[in-house]
Write a structure and sequence with these properties.
alpha+beta
């Protein structure tokens, strides 16, 4: 679960190429995004006659059983099944509990998952750096 931020170019024939992932989730997700975008979406803005290609930036959220919320995603891929995942709310509760008890390792684990889900959340990143300095 998480947010993958990436960009790619679209040539003058409307074909996507030159994928660059700013945020990687791994597990073959980046490769699947390229295949899905290339095969399923065939209506891209063609390049301007002055350019040879146009950049497109996308934030894609991957949600399992509704356990992840991403209000800033451009695309949302949802999967349902017997996944024993942890919701965002539960991770925040775990973080608060670990912080109160001074359990840095537990707090780091919850924060790491939250940062992977919300890579642009500077508050989570700042807290993770604070714990790492201890």
């Amino acid at each position: 679960m998480g947010l993958s931020s990436f960009a790619f170019k679209v040539d003058c024939n409307g074909k996507p190429h030159s994928f660059k992932f700013k945020t990687k989730l791994g597990f073959g997700i980046e490769e699947e995004l390229q295949i899905t975008i290339v095969k399923k979406l065939d209506q891209w803005i063609e390049c301007d006659i002055r350019d040879t290609s146009t950049w497109v930036n996308i934030k894609a959220a991957f949600v399992l059983n509704g356990l992840y919320k991403s209000p800033d995603a451009d695309l949302v891929f949802t999967a349902h099944g017997p996944f024993p995942g942890v919701s965002d709310d539960q991770l925040l509760k775990d973080l608060e509990k670990a912080t109160k008890k001074g359990k840095d390792e537990d707090a780091r684990a919850a924060l790491t998952k939250l940062v992977m889900r919300f890579p642009y959340n500077q508050e989570y990143k700042k807290k993770l750096l604070e714990i790492a300095k201890k």
